[in-house]
Design goal:
single chain, mainly alpha, two-stranded parallel sheet, 4 helices
C-alpha cells in the first residue's frame, strides 16, 4: 500500500487582465456566467482564492487564453459555454499538477 499523501487541488480560472476577460465575455456570449466587469470578476476571484487557500487546499491558477479555449472547443466538438471552460481549465491544470507540458 502506498504512503502517498492525497492533496485536494482546486482549479481556478484566471485571466491576464481586462482584455482577456472582455474577450472571454465575447467568446462565451450569453453562455458565460461571468460577472459584468473585469473588476467584479477579479474581486470575486481573489476572495474565492483566499477562502480556498485558507481551507488548506492547493490551488492551480489556469490562465485562460480566450482564443485557445475557443479553438479547444472546436477540436473537441463541444459547446462554447461555462461548463466547457471549466473542463478546459481542468484539462490544463491536470497537466500542471502531473508536471506535464500542455
Amino acid at each position: 500500500m502506498s504512503d502517498e499523501l492525497s492533496v485536494s487541488v482546486v482549479t481556478l480560472i484566471w485571466y491576464n487582465g481586462r482584455e482577456d476577460f472582455d474577450r472571454m465575455v465575447e467568446v462565451l456570449g450569453s453562455n458565460g456566467n461571468l460577472p459584468r466587469s473585469y473588476e467584479a470578476w477579479l474581486r470575486a476571484a481573489e476572495k474565492g482564492e483566499q477562502k480556498i487557500r485558507n481551507s488548506g487546499m492547493r490551488i492551480v491558477r489556469v490562465v485562460v487564453n480566450p482564443n485557445a479555449f475557443a479553438a479547444w472547443c472546436v477540436t473537441r466538438v463541444c459547446d462554447v459555454n461555462h461548463k466547457s471552460l471549466q473542463n478546459y481549465a481542468t484539462f490544463i491544470s491536470r497537466d500542471t499538477v502531473l508536471g506535464r507540458n500542455n
